[in-house]
Design a protein that fits this description.
The chain is an alpha+beta fold. Helices cover 37% and strands 15% of the residues. The strands form two sheets. Strands 1-2-3 form a three-stranded antiparallel sheet. A three-stranded mixed sheet has the order 5-4-6, sandwiched between helices. Strand 2 (84-90) and strand 3 (95-97) form a beta hairpin. It is globular, with a radius of gyration of 23 Å.
């Protein structure tokens, strides 16, 4: 776009296809011109105060219904009793009782070097991914934001590769065990026991102690 337009606003206008459709404007179908037309003629909705106003509003609505947010707080461990989580213990020693604990930590063996390996496998202008054994996508590296699409779910790895083919960009499937081995059940966690960090290993022991078999 820089070779065609000097005005930054025109560059953004004509490169919209790359962001929205994930392709070069030179390769975009003519029908995508309708997007720009609708934006210019019909108008565009946007949150007053910018995109950050959206999470602030959501947090405000949740707080109005009794939700308490603990920002800048590190969870050190999860207290388990009777085979289920009962509380979260923070790094400051606070105990937060809970009926349900949601933990987004299904890659318990991952190390910083694994992420560096994934970045090293990323081809220029393309994408690199690590697939789980069930065909889902555990890790995804992108050379540019427009390459992303919400394709997660069953067999998502194949869909990401098919997207790369449609966009005519290179794609690499990286074999990185610590990123490929995710955890959905206690059995999955036990299979990774020798590769767990000390805190995760301690949590596994606690689960075993409190679990009735």
């Amino acid at each position: 776009m820089n070779s065609y337009f000097v005005d930054e606003r025109l560059r953004r206008l004509f490169s919209f296809q790359a962001m929205y459709a994930g392709m070069s404007p030179a390769k975009a179908l003519a029908i995508y011109a309708v997007i720009t037309y609708m934006d210019c003629i019909e108008g565009v909705y946007f949150p007053e105060g910018g995109m950050h106003a959206v999470p602030r509003a959501l947090a405000g609505a949740a707080a109005a219904h009794g939700v308490t947010f603990r920002y800048n707080t590190t969870a050190a461990s999860i207290e388990v009793a009777g085979g289920r989580a009962r509380a979260v213990i923070t790094a400051d020693g606070d105990r937060i009782p809970a009926d349900t604990v949601v933990v987004n930590a299904d890659l318990p063996a991952v190390q910083p070097r694994d992420l560096l390996t994934l970045l090293g496998a990323l081809p220029e202008n393309g994408l690199a991914l690590v697939a789980a054994s069930d065909g889902t996508t555990n890790a995804l590296a992108l050379a540019a934001p427009h390459l992303f699409a919400p394709l997660y779910g069953p067999e998502s790895a194949e869909r990401f590769l098919a997207r790369a083919t449609r966009l005519d960009v290179p794609a690499v499937v990286a074999a990185i065990p610590n990123l490929a081995d995710d955890v959905d059940t206690l059995g999955d966690l036990e299979e990774l026991e020798g590769r767990l960090g000390p805190r995760t290993a301690a949590s596994l022991d606690a689960l075993r102690t409190g679990l009735t078999r």
